[in-house]
Amino acid sequence: MPKNVKKQHLPTKTCVVCNRPFTWRKKWEKVWDEVKYCSDRCRREK
């Protein structure tokens, strides 16, 4: 992800549990392709 990207231009995905959209986060930079859940709560409820 290039630096200085505006929030509105970040990639988004849909959570497989709650079906809500969530946006890219810095902590997911290296594993973005593997991220399926928007939060720890959704991950626990899978």
How would you describe what is shown here?
- By secondary structure, the protein is of the alpha+beta class.
- The chain has one domain.
- It contains 1 helix and 2 strands, in the order E-E-H.
- A two-stranded antiparallel sheet has the order 1-2.
- A hairpin with a 6-residue loop joins strand 1 and strand 2.
- The longest helix is centred in the C-terminal third of the chain and has 5 residues.
- The termini are far apart.
- The mean pLDDT is 92.
| Rg measurement, Å | 11 Å
What is the count of distinct domains?
Answer: 1
Proportion of strand residues: 5-15%
Summarize the helix and strand pattern as letters. EEH
Coarse shape = elongated
Helical amount among residues, as a percent range? 10-25%
Q: For the residues shown, what is the average pLDDT?
A: 92
Structural class: alpha+beta
Assembly of the depicted chains: single chain
Low-confidence stretches: none
